[in-house]
Write a structure and sequence with these properties.
The protein is an alpha/beta fold. The protein has 15 helices and 9 strands. The chain starts with 9 loop residues before the first strand and ends with a helix.
């Protein structure tokens, strides 16, 4: 594999919010570390702020350990019966397909709102978790600058907070402020009320560009946050790391989901770092167009083309690939579509980096 990013450049990183999906960002961090990518600033929202603090401190092993053992009771305290009644919401299992009547909708929403009306979810476990995993002194003294977004309800303003400028005894409060979900019990942090920064800017690129950063790695997580709209400076380069996979529920804090999401984050980061192709799989595309064409034509199920070879290559193959989801008209893309279709049919392991030839060899064994 050939690294596509310049390891001599120092980057900034934007981490999106996403609750329990946040383990994905630790997987991304693993790939960045292995590739030798340097960064001197991180901006995070909600769980991205908490992960950003760990990025800034630099204790990767601790971050992996914390997420690998995460449980819902480390994030919020549920009263007896809450976890069972809210299970579809907490685990992201709620679907319109589960609804058979308007009464089903009413009953489920009532269970969720009853928890909030009763005073909100207790954040004491999350406070304890932040205190356990994030050393405020280490964060304050880190050369990696951290910016977090939150909504200051008391002052009625959205804020981008530079953590290194916050007093040490207020750092934990500001991290919690960025992740303060509306269902949490309303308690003052440093004398003020806050709300989750995802309602202002779920992917805080603005905080980085405003402080002069122009080479930014943006880590996306699918969710319901609001991305702030603003004019990005023309000289800014944004390298996106994103996923096509289902990362699970935003409140499904389990070690099982965390371990899976870390793996997905790692491989999605490899896709960006090394220019891998594939919608589902991770394929190193280092083939010439001639080599890709020859590999395709060598496959038994591609030999039975109608008419002559020229017609097949110029008409039949592009049409077949287009129907299968090809995004470009070239033989490497046609080969990518072919490989992913066959791999899905045969159940080939997804989380592995393959060359096209290695993938074909594996498929032949199945």
């Amino acid at each position: 594999m050939q690294l596509k990013l310049d390891p001599t450049i120092t980057y900034a990183i934007a981490l999106e919010g996403g609750g329990a999906k946040g383990a994905y960002e630790i997987g991304v961090w693993k790939a960045l570390r292995e590739a030798g990518i340097k960064f001197d600033a991180v901006a995070g929202t909600s769980v991205g702020a908490l992960n950003g603090a760990m990025y800034a401190i630099g204790d990767f092993d601790k971050a992996v350990e914390c997420w690998s053992n995460i449980q819902l009771n480390q994030v919020m305290k549920l009263e007896p019966g809450d976890e069972e009644t809210m299970a579809p919401l907490l685990k992201g299992e709620f679907s319109l397909r589960d609804i058979r009547s308007l009464q089903d909708v009413s009953d489920l929403l009532k269970k969720a709102f009853d928890v909030v009306r009763s005073g909100g979810l207790d954040t004491a476990p999350l406070r304890s978790w932040i205190a356990e995993v994030i050393d405020p002194e280490a964060l304050k003294n880190s050369p990696v600058q951290l910016y977090v977004t939150t909504i200051n309800i008391t002052d009625r303003e959205a804020q981008e907070v530079h953590i290194q400028e916050v007093p040490v005894d207020e750092i934990h409060n500001m991290l919690l402020a960025s992740a303060y979900h509306p269902t949490f019990k309303q308690e003052k942090l440093g004398g003020k009320n806050y709300a989750d920064g995802g309602f202002f800017d779920s992917l805080p690129l603005h905080a980085l560009t405003e402080t002069g950063h122009r080479q930014i790695i943006a880590v996306h997580m699918p969710g319901m946050g609001i991305e702030r709209r603003y004019k990005v400076p023309e000289d800014t380069v944004i390298i996106d790391i994103e996923t096509n996979a289902d990362l699970g529920g935003v409140l499904n804090f389990t070690s099982e989901q965390a371990l899976r999401d870390m793996k997905i984050g790692y491989y999605d980061a490899l896709r960006t770092l090394y220019g891998l192709i594939g919608e589902t799989y991770y394929i190193d595309p280092m083939l010439t167009e001639q080599e890709a064409m020859e590999l395709l034509l060598a496959q038994p199920d591609m030999r039975a083309f109608s008419g002559n070879l020229a017609h097949f290559l110029e008409e039949d193959l592009p049409e077949m690939a287009k129907k299968a989801g090809a995004k470009a008209q070239n033989y490497n893309e046609y080969l990518r579509v072919y490989l992913e279709q066959r791999a899905a049919e045969k159940g080939l392991e997804v989380y592995h980096v393959y060359t096209a030839k290695e993938m074909l060899d594996k498929l032949a064994e199945l």
